[in-house]
Specification:
By secondary structure, this protein is mainly alpha-helical. It folds into 3 domains: about 30-420, no CATH class; about 450-605, no CATH class; about 615-805, I/LWEQ domain, CATH 1.20.1410. Helices cover about 75% and strands about 0% of the residues. Helix 3 (about 90-105) runs antiparallel to helix 4 (about 120-145). It is globular and about 65 Å long.
């Protein structure tokens, strides 16, 4: 991705008259990243919709929703390739579209069965979808204004929407005009189906000869990201298969099932990103311009759809496998359930085969072998427990990987060498790092679940303590990958091990400071998993740099605080009460001192040892983790208002929450740029290391902490989502504190970069002073005041922010 401060915007040649202005960027913009985050919750709610239906209805209704979501996303993928979506007024349109998609996601459980007592769920869903579709078309229409040759295809792009909109509205209103029954449901599905056919057929309406693909790099990254989003949703489904409450006992079967589910997801990730994605990018780049857009449409717009659908089926199957078993009892599948899980893998591999064939005319032996094995195992899987069938599936997929590194290793190595250059072109993050980041989305969500289980000031502080540990493990991994760029297979193995450990840690996070009867000791799981993650970092870092005396020093210095911190955390677990009583003073002291020593160990390393081989990559990674924190806030918002029926208050809460989060995001964007300027001014390794450590490794923890507090505040105060035992005042206070912490931390980053704050600091002070007053207002009015204040602060303070076009040049 190229969404960080290292983003380069080449001016490029002036387009000939009559053509839409091209996007001169090579990577995905910040606005598009924010939009993609909303799709995480949308995909989560698709699996929720399917879990509440019979097998046939689940598949048909789930397919309808996925097709509509994908069509909405595709519109912005094309628009973002034609023009930059982070310039001028386009971010406003994109954030409005994100709000519309969030409304669509909230309404997904009511698309086909409207709940009495609120607004029409189907109408909210269709209205949000149409609003999002119109947004992408408006962006294109605005750019083609005055361009003679592009006006006609732009107008034709409206035709499919004009044909499908009446059908979609009819499907939404039909249940209110006809008597309830199976016939009405079938007719509704038919109307949705015809509308989808019309809309998808319209992808050919503009013609591929009129609008050329302007950036292969952007197009491929865009689809890589949505694949990772869908993979991330499967990870979240594994972790939250028993809900978002965190009260269920943690058993060995839960941990084993989570690990096996992760093996399945890891294989699907590997099958796409190992060879298929970089090879496809090479082929698309080598295709003549006249045929490139058609190939991009067929291979990506159409043939990525079955892969996305397969991943959602896998997420649904994993949720069924891991979420239905009672403690201590094996869970046998219903007849259709193993077919869903195994069928999701088959659909994914079929889509992958079709994608590779269309773009490179190659049939991958690995996907074919996987298809054969999975198809053969469906029948025996139906006679096993859920955990047994999951074990069988994971074993089969592991065999496919082993075949690649043994029997098929010669061909596999040839392909790897062929795609090596393309696979190494990522600027801010590799697919491996993004895969790990998705595990942290789930872990951050679980931090808010911990706070919700203990709705008090102490519970909030406990959540922040766990967040500090998560943060420090992420920082150390980022430090490793920024220093070591060519780890190859080693890097992938590290990622898989780290994701597995973070998943186990995340499962246990809600019970970090308590013991649940009949369950494993969650505090011990948290400490053990965290210790293993930290040890893994140190070991692989040492193995990678053991022959470099300069790089060995920081690894040795980091080991001491890590060891002391782990010992104290273990002491805290062993001295904690197991009867549900509050933590003892000794346990509390052990936790606090352990976090201070371990996290504070970054200063023991010394500024000169914080070596950065790529400043822009370092900044880009932290840019992305802020988006990760925003992503879990979006999910928390969706969870809060997700219980039907949908009301006007729900719609207002969603819109205001989206506005609040977007205002916080754009406040940070300016900060990212000014720190990049400061890096460019520094001349020595020690100065750059000190800035990287202070502004990013530490002050960004406060930024992420503020966003987690905002997420908890939104989850516990929004209409319909208020936890029964959560005092209203605590939720609003936490929300306000989160905003204040975020703004003050943002200001400290500016100060650390030695940048004048002037008017910007004045308006931030006004917001900070105003925020506590909102705790005396009703929730929705408080959100109105906070959102307007943040947006006003952004408008009045943006004169101090350099333009996004500022270029940061890497310096060793």
């Amino acid at each position: 991705m190229n969404g960080g401060a290292g983003e380069t915007a080449s001016p490029g040649p002036t387009p000939p008259d009559g053509q839409i202005k091209v996007a001169t960027h090579g990577g995905v913009t910040r606005s598009e990243l924010f939009l993609d985050l909303v799709f995480v919750f949308a995909f989560i709610n698709v699996t929720r919709l399917m879990s509440e239906r019979s097998a046939l209805d689940a598949l048909l209704q789930g397919a309808v929703v996925v097709l509509l979501l994908w069509r909405s996303w595709v519109g912005y993928a094309w628009a973002g390739n034609l023009v930059r979506l982070d310039r001028g007024g386009r971010p406003v349109v994109v954030f409005a579209a994100a709000t519309a998609i969030l409304l669509v996601a909230v309404a997904i459980p009511e698309v086909f069965v409207d709940q009495p007592g609120g607004l029409s769920g189907p109408l909210v869903f269709v209205g949000g979808f149409l609003a999002a579709r119109v947004g992408s078309l408006l962006i294109i229409a605005r750019e083609q204004r005055g361009s003679a040759n592009s006006a006609a295809p732009a107008r034709r792009a409206w035709l499919p929407l004009a044909g499908s909109a009446p059908l979609l509205l009819s499907a939404a209103l039909l249940p209110y005009q006809l008597p309830a029954g199976r016939r009405t449901e079938v007719l509704q599905l038919l109307l949705f189906g015809v509308a989808i056919v019309v809309d998808y057929a319209g992808l050919r309406a503009p013609g591929t000869g009129s609008w050329q693909l302007t950036s292969v790099r952007h197009w491929v990254e865009r689809h890589n990201l949505i694949m990772l989003i869908a993979l991330g949703e499967t990870i979240i489904s594994i972790g939250t298969s028993r809900g978002f409450i965190g009260d269920d006992p943690i058993t060995w079967s839960v941990l084993a099932g989570s690990a096996l589910g992760l093996v399945v997801v890891a294989f699907l990730w590997w099958a796409y990103f190992d060879i298929a994605s970089p090879r496809a990018e090479q082929a698309l780049d080598a295709t003549p311009a006249a045929a490139r857009s058609r190939l991009a449409r067929d291979a990506y717009t159409f043939l990525h759809l079955p892969m996305i659908g397969g991943l959602i089926l896998v997420a649904f199957g994993l949720k069924k496998a891991l979420g239905g078993a009672k403690v201590g009892h094996p869970d046998h599948w219903d007849v259709a359930e193993p077919a869903v899980l195994y069928g999701g893998v088959i659909l994914y591999l079929l889509g992958l085969l079709a994608f590779e064939w269309r773009i490179v005319r190659r049939v991958g032996r690995g996907p074919v072998l996987g298809l054969v094995l999975v198809a053969l195992l469906i029948t025996p899987a139906r006679h096993l427990t859920a955990l047994g069938s999951l074990t069988l599936l994971a074993g089969a997929l592991v065999c496919v990987v082993l075949a690649h590194v043994t029997v098929l290793r010669r061909r596999h190595r040839q392909l790897h060498r062929a795609v090596a250059v393309t696979a190494g072109q990522e600027v801010d993050a590799t697919p491996e790092e993004l895969f790990l980041d998705l595990a942290f989305v789930y872990a951050f969500i679980q931090v808010t679940v911990l706070m919700t289980r203990h709705p008090s000031a102490v519970g909030v502080l406990q959540g922040l303590a766990v967040l500090a540990l998560l943060w420090w493990s992420w920082v150390n991994y980022t430090w490793f990958t920024t220093t070591i760029r060519n780890a190859g297979t080693l890097l992938r193995l590290i990622v898989l091990a780290a994701v597995a450990l973070i998943l186990m840690l995340g499962v246990a996070i809600p019970q970090t400071f308590s013991y649940v009867p009949r369950g494993l000791p969650a505090p011990l799981i948290v400490v053990t998993a965290y210790g293993a993650v930290r040890l893994l970092h140190l070991v692989v870092f040492w193995l990678a740099v053991r022959h470099d005396a300069a790089l060995r020093t920081p690894v040795i210095l980091a080991a001491a605080p890590t060891g002391v911190g782990m010992a104290l955390l273990l002491c805290a677990v062993l001295t904690a009460p197991t009867t549900g009583d509050p933590l003892t003073p000794l346990t509390t002291v052990c936790w606090v001192v352990a976090i201070v020593i371990d996290v504070g160990g970054g200063y023991l390393i010394g500024a000169r040892n914080w070596r950065l081989h790529s400043v822009s990559r370092w900044m880009g990674r932290f840019n992305l983790v802020i988006l990760v924190a925003l992503g879990q806030a979006v999910v928390s918002t969706g969870i809060a208002v997700g219980d039907p029926p949908i009301s006007i208050a729900t719609l207002g809460a969603v819109a205001l929450s989206a506005g609040l989060l977007s205002a916080l995001w754009w406040t940070y964007v300016g900060t990212d740029v000014v720190v990049g300027q400061r890096f460019a001014e520094l001349a020595t390794t020690r100065q750059r290391g000190a800035l990287a450590r202070d502004a990013y490794a530490y002050l960004h923890l406060l930024l992420v902490g503020g966003l987690v507090l905002v997420a908890f505040g939104l989850r516990t105060t929004l209409p319909q989502g208020r936890h029964a035992s959560t005092p209203m005042m605590l939720g609003q206070l936490t929300l306000v504190c989160g905003i204040i912490v975020f703004l003050l931390a943002d200001h400290l980053v500016w100060r650390r970069a030695h940048r004048r704050v002037g008017r910007r600091w004045a308006v931030i002070l006004v917001v900070v002073a105003l925020a506590p007053v909102t705790t005396m207002l009703p929730t929705l009015w408080a959100l109105v005041v906070l959102t307007v204040a943040l947006l006003a602060a952004h408008v009045f303070g943006r004169s101090a922010t350099p333009p996004l076009e500022t270029v940061l040049t890497d310096r060793a």
